[in-house]
Design a protein that fits this description.
The structure is a homotrimer. Chain A is mainly alpha-helical. Helices cover about 75% and strands about 0% of the residues of chain A. The first copy, chain A, has one domain.
Chain lengths: ~200, ~200, ~200
């Protein structure tokens, strides 16, 4: 289970890095700009979480694997630049797996340092979505999270689901179900154009 | 006195949350976007202060009342959306009370961890104004604080006033006078269109 | 050597402050807005580094000299506002000295708290460039670092150079050579319009 989590954590880092790099390429930033945007997208959420809960130095300063994965993501983005259109659906899927994983991992890390479940749910959502917010602010556009489409709400639902199930059933199963829930909500929300807007 | 401070601190959190939520509603963000904007506005200043002075986990992760107040502020904003115009004057008053309180509270918290008065004044201003800066950057507009109108300068005057009075008179009275000073400067600045611009 | 480093660190703070203040003046921010922009530019990079590596309270809260230098930079900017055009070349030179110094200083501070050389290189670059990123985001424009011109790449080259030379020769000399390398790359990049864009 631990190995699985690490595997998907690393996979999440990779696909978030690609997501940031592609935005940088679209905007014709130079190599370094692309790298920074990839880095901010991939590690922004976990970094803010670590800083807020006081777990410093932040994770990617003590474990260089995250940085190598970001570099790999940037490389892949340059190589596959021309097939970005075909990649968009794949990236959406990986990105959704990424936010699902980051939500549960962020939640657990916050519980591990002794904070409350309320704080943990919030930090789970922050871990999942803040990288994308940073990417959009740096690229000078209104963050996607603030548009009508459901995004952070899927993470919130998954985090609450995990807290509820964790008290009832095996932790690994609770984790997998919660991750699947985030994934399903996000996919359905986009397919069926769900919106949380209260306007009519 | 402690109870009074907590009361106004909580009131400040509530009105800052409303201030952020209303900007989100104006821009037609979804429920989650509105929530994040409200959260950033209400707790952004205190969070930056806590991170910079090394007081982590930050306050709202260990005291959930702040989060409940933000949720309440978002609810109120949705319910009163249509009377936003009538609310603007009320919100201006509460917002001004909020920055006045946050200035003095931030100053004291910084002194409490053993930092210098200079650092405390700076952290007081940061506590008061950074939430609004975060809100404006997230909503992709030039922060209000950078426009001509006096805003942070009122907080700075209040912070310096408190430091001066605190050495001379009772702390509670020094606090109330300083808070009143921020409030009065801010109200007069808007009414009389004071500006710190040195241009002619 | 220590004295020299402090001298140039302080000089870097001063010129970065001027760089931020001038952007604020160009955009007609009020005095306080100009001050905050100068502060963010001058201390943004070091602050992010200190927060990420867990070295809090951050440096400028315990050493007020940085704040006085920022105030001096703002004063100078107001006094010399009308000769800003003539100043641009001078500011470019000082700014380049500043990022060169901040790169090496940030790298060393990160090594000093026991983190890896990889982390140190990254924090060196962050120290040098994040102040400018903050300035541009606050002024609501796409950060210069993301444009085509080589900027952070020069810092990265200097950081790697220092790590390599530090193992071979005297530390002070390694430092001076690395600083000179950042400076030369940056100047040549602007003069000869070097770009890292991979587009053709």
């Amino acid at each position: 289970m631990e190995t699985l989590i690490f595997g998907i954590d690393y996979l999440g880092t990779l696909v978030f890095a690609i997501s940031g790099a592609v935005v940088g390429l679209e905007r014709r930033f130079d190599v370094f700009g692309v790298l920074i945007l990839a880095l901010a997208t991939a590690i922004g959420g976990g970094t803010l979480r670590d800083v807020l809960i006081g777990s410093t130095p932040v994770g990617w300063l003590t474990n260089p694997h995250y940085l190598y994965l970001v570099l790999a993501g940037v490389l892949i983005s340059y190589l596959l630049k021309d097939v970005a259109v075909r990649w968009k659906r794949g990236m959406f899927l990986f990105d959704t797996i990424g936010i699902a994983l980051y939500t549960i991992l962020g939640l657990q890390k916050t519980l591990d340092v002794g904070l409350s479940p309320t704080a943990a749910v919030l930090m789970g959502v922050v871990s999942a979505v803040f990288g994308g917010v940073t990417r959009d602010v740096m690229a000078n556009r209104v963050p996607l999270i603030f548009r009508k489409e459901i995004y952070a709400s899927a993470c919130l639902a998954g985090a609450l689901c995990f807290l509820a199930l964790d008290a009832l059933i095996n932790e690994s199963i609770a984790m997998l179900i919660s991750i699947a829930l985030v994934f399903v909500i996000r996919v359905l929300a986009v397919k069926r154009r769900w919106s949380l807007s209260l306007e009519t």
